[in-house]
Amino acid sequence: MEREYQYPVNLFTEVRIENRWTAVYVVQNGEVMRNLETETTGAIVRVYDGQMWYTSVTNAMEDIQKEIDGLAALATPNPEIYEHPTVRNFGDCRDTVLRYQGEDSLRKVSEEEREKLVWDYVKVCEDNPIPEVASYRAILNLENLKKEYYSSKGAAICQDQQSALFFHVSGILIDGITTGAAKGYSVTSFAELKGHEEEILAERERYLRYAKEAVDVKPGDYTCVLAPSVTAMFTHESFGHKSESDFMLNDKTLREEWILGKKVGSELVSISDDGALPYSGYVPYDDEGNRAVRTDLITKGVLTGRLHDSHSAAVLGETITGNARAQSYYFSPVVRMTNTIMAAGESDPEDIIAGVQDGVYIYGVNYGTGSATFTLQPNCCYRIRDGKLCEPLRVNVVTGSVFEALFDVDAVGNDLRIINEGVCGKNGQSVNVSMGGPTIRVKKLSVN
């Protein structure tokens, strides 16, 4: 039901309301470590006079009008406020996009069903104990979020999101070294979480063999083949964050480096961001009331776009993209990625590996970071010799120059994979994201 407020004259006002339901169930080494179900409702009210934002947060919906009036009393009326470049970029849509409030809502899943799913996984995955597996955790996290957005520009938006996440993590201990074997699933329905036991066991077996057989890599520069999940992390960290345009507002050097129309990589590289896709970064409207759109960031190696909130688009004179996101109603939005994907190519993954005489295949990573130089911290690698995967390698870190690495991509696979289990942190806020990519080959990276 749409809410109505009395907005102060000559000030821009917005109200964001959230109702968030979560359920968490965690089993570790046979013991229930967490069993929690919560529901919270809150709102953030912001008033802008063209010089300053005035903000308050409340958990009492009946107090929102009082909060608006109180903030308005602090602000300076501005008859030209709706001509302000930033305010012009705020959305004025009126829409309802509710996908998860009926029988598909995770709120309908009972406590008994949640517990049964976790223990069914534990029974299958831990039924035959392996001596080298020193510990395990089974984690279930369900969330259903309903959001409303209203503004003095006339916006009235109601939308929802939900995620069902299950992770199984094994701690493999060999010769005093612990190797983590993790397999996770992030989907939008409870039913989709069921039936992945064989995949979890296969992943654990891979990392068990890796832990037993891995040898230290000889540090140096290698041709590297990145598995799809690693490409996804590489895309997110090495370039995705650079596309968040608020980073360059006070950085003249960065603006000069990343000029639209500049060739920044191989013609095989195309990257886009699209919050309308039904993955973990799904946000049909952002937290400034703007509709999500597909933004082509790199097209065949050429920089063609970047991500914006209302302020960055106004400062840089570019089109709004619907990428203003806040962790919750406690926070003001900043520019964030949604679903960021490197497009698939035409090469068969086996052919990509076969084209390497001496190199490293990176199967999995724990994390990555990105700036002018990016880093990947692998958790499973293999040596490539004469086009074949050979012994597993222990690698501490893989690094490279963002500019050089994008140009050094000389093969892109046809095996695009979306990684839904991502959570991205920035400015003290974390939001759900998806990242995707295919197998790629990079001519030279530093491996240590």
Largest sheet: 7 strands, mixed
What structural class do the secondary elements suggest?
alpha+beta
Helix content: 10-25%
Count of domain modules: 2
Q: Tell me the strand percentage band.
A: 35-45%
Alpha-carbon distance between the termini? Answer: 57 Å
Summed over residues and divided by their number, the pLDDT gives a mean of 96
Number of strands: 23
Poorly predicted runs are none
Summed up, what is this model?
The protein is an alpha+beta fold.
Characterise this structure.
- By secondary structure, the chain is an alpha+beta fold.
- It has 2 domains: 12-213, PmbA/TldD fold (2-Layer Sandwich); 216-447, no CATH class.
- It is built from 9 helices and 23 strands.
- The strands form 4 sheets. Strands 1, 2, 3, 4, 5, 6 and 7 form a 7-stranded mixed β-sheet that branches. Strands 12-11-10-15-22-21 form a 6-stranded mixed β-sheet, with helices on one face.
- A hairpin with a 2-residue loop joins strand 21 and strand 22.
- The longest helix has 17 residues, at 197-213.
- The model has no long low-confidence stretch (mean pLDDT 96).
Keywords:
448 residues, alpha+beta, PmbA/TldD fold, 2 domains, 9 helices, globular
